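Exam revision sheet. Question 4 asks you to relate a sequence to its structure. Input first:
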Amino acid sequence: MHNELTEKDIQLMRQELDYRRTVLRPKLIEDVQTARAFGDLSENFEYKAAKRDKNRNDSRCRYLENMIKTAVVISGQSAAGTVGLYDKVTFYMEEDDETVTCQIVTTMRQDALKGLISKESPVGKAVLGRRVGDRATVHVSDSYSYDIVIQDIQPGEDTGEAPLVGF
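Answer key, structure tokens:
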């Protein structure tokens, strides 16, 4: 599986990975050693919590390493007047009689509550490459879809403000 990411996504992942390896990991290892000194490990909550935090950090490091290793670098460029990566799109949802504005981003930067929609989401797939006035069908599942009409496109760029998705 390849992950379509921008150069900025990869740069942010490398920065996080470097921080987790050089700053966070030594601190977490020290926390485990300190908690281990408290005595009986079978009833030592501090030890279990410290191990859990260390394991989560190690897991996140492996995840970031894998994402970087399997990444396919894509460009945020799009044809003039069409929806591309990092553009802000305003569209009208006919079914709900509602207007929505969102920004199309990569999967590593998505946050629907902040209006950052993945290019691989149903809405992202429906609007990419479209123009103002185009009608698009958003396929949510095999049994449900709805239509939207693109009203406005504001060209955008990856400023790096949108943080990476965590877990």
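Marking note for examiners. The CA atoms of residues 16 and 64 lie 8 Å apart.
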